[in-house]
Amino acid sequence: xxxxxxxxxxxxxxxxxxxxxxxxxxxxxxxxxxxxxxxxxxxxxxxxxxxxxxxxxxxxxxxxxxxxxxxxxxxxxxxxxxxxxxxxxxxxxxxxxxxxxxxxxxxxxxxxxxxxxxxxxxxxxxxxxxxxxxxxxxxxxxxxxxxxxxxxxxxxxxxxxxxxxxxxxxxxxxxxxxxxxxxxxxxxxxxxxxxxxxxxxxxxxxxxxxxxxxxxxxxxxxxxxxxxxxxxxxxxxxxxxxxxxxxxxxxxxxxxxxxxxxxxxxxxxxxxxxxxxxxxxxxxxxxxxxx
Length: 291
Ligand code: IPE
Ligand code: IPE
Ligand code: MG
Ligand code: MG
Ligand code: MG
What we know:
Blueprint: H1 2-19, H2 28-38, H3 45-56, H4 65-82, E1 92-93, E2 96-97, H5 99-103, H6 105-126, H7 131-145, H8 150-160, H9 167-192, H10 197-224, H11 227-230, H12 236-239, H13 245-249, H14 251-268, H15 277-288
Antiparallel strand pairs: 1-2
Helix pairs in contact: 1-3, 1-4, 2-6, 3-4, 3-9, 3-15, 4-6, 4-9, 7-9, 8-9, 9-10, 10-14, 14-15
């Protein structure tokens, strides 16, 4: 993600170590399972995005770290559940055996539940700011994770598996299963920074386009990437008859659509009186990434 974002990623890593509940607590296996998935690497794309938006709005990124880390907890929970045999049935994640392979399905389900709850505990305990803003952050994340957000997208994803779907359906799936949490990562930072009106609207549009592009590229990398670089098994979508951008539009058109969304994301920031450079670079990263 470039040198600049590497600095942000390290900030996130350090803060997560600080915030994460101590593993001395009983019963140890649930702490071990949560830590196993959380500290397995991962790009930390969503929390880095939160930090970059805060900075773009003139706020010290350290101020939004509890919310940024909470978003990574929610994302990690979604990966643990996404990998379960009943959903995508995957064996490798972030370069390690998936949580349910390492700890069993029962503990993996609860590790996901635990991370989801800890996310809200972290925000409501440690996020500083106007109480109304912190409450709005909680509401944004609840909505982005729930039936109108990620859960809704995941349900549309599993119910479409093995079916023929139209472009509107695959767009719906991607906007919700992946796009909504990415949008929340941006909006939460903006809300804590006190943004409203046009700035909040344009950042929301940036995030929506970026989130869609992120998942289109994930689909492309499933076909073109290597298991070692991805840290998850390549070519698993086709085997599982998942619906993806390439399965609906073909590979070439999918690349073009991802590029188009990245350009729209960048366009959404044009002329805004904030420091947009890092956000524009991050948009390019989404299209160019190889992992
Ligand atoms: C993978 O997300 C799942 C999607 C929503 C595409 P990431 O590509 O951000 O995975 P990590 O966090 O880096 O492991
Ligand atoms: C994941 O989509 C979306 C969520 C986890 C919410 P995918 O199923 O494509 O993600 P990967 O490829 O397993 O990381
Ligand atoms: Mg999935
Ligand atoms: Mg999956
Ligand atoms: Mg995928």
